[in-house]
Amino acid sequence: GNSVTQMEGPVTLSEEAFLTINCTYTATGYPSLFWYVQYPGEGLQLLLKATKADDKGSNKGFEATYRKETTSFHLEKGSVQVSDSAVYFCALSPNSGYALNFGKGTSLLVTP
Amino acid sequence: NAGVTQTPKFRILKIGQSMTLQCTQDMNHNYMYWYRQDPGMGLKLIYYSVGAGITDKGEVPNGYNVSRSTTEDFPLRLELAAPSQTSVYFCASSPTGGAGAKNIQYFGAGTRLSVL
Q1: Residue A84: helix, strand or coil by DSSP?
Q2: CB of B113 within 8 A of CB of B11?
Q3: A and B: number of Cβ contacts within 8 A
Q4: Does B107 touch chain A (CB under 8 A)?
Q5: Per-residue model confidence as pLDDT tens digits over A53-73
Q6: What pLDDT, in 10s, does the model give residues B47-72?
Q7: CA–CA distance, A15 with B72 (Å, rounded to integer)
């Protein structure tokens, strides 16, 4: 079946540090890949997406590249801010059905 | 803009009690979903709906019921609450539904439910 594995948290970084959150997936065919972010007290919101191999999704300084050869979709940001503190979810949408398959989420805390 | 609104935000139930988790969206989305998130786990789909009057089971439907009488509302019903239903529940909606790149979902803030 389809599944998403992302690195365990919590991740604690100092402001302006480089961020990587690893995400790998298992799926048949060519799923679409997403990163969602959940700020404290809010619902999940789409951060970025990629729909085919070698696509790069980007938003708010975050980037992730769809790597089919390594079945990965790692999230990166060059310089994190305190306001980036949140929980980040990697997800995939298979080519059939309606569900999104989510990873467990990675909590990020950025300190001043 | 309201988006997807869930009520209540928190609830404590006793074993065997029943309750309805409310979800409403004002984006005129046809597709709506209910997920649960257990501690340290990803979200799992409980039920979904592709339009008013149409619902279907997701991955973990046991112990829950849903209805979709209007485009805006998609309530989730727990009939006999059990400790295993202690979780955070998220409602989501999608304008187009479908698989792959079309499956962008918009989430509510969640309902945290404890069954004791």
Answers
A1: helix
A2: yes
A3: 73
A4: yes
A5: 999 999 999 999 999 999 999
A6: 999 999 999 999 899 999 999 999 99
A7: 41
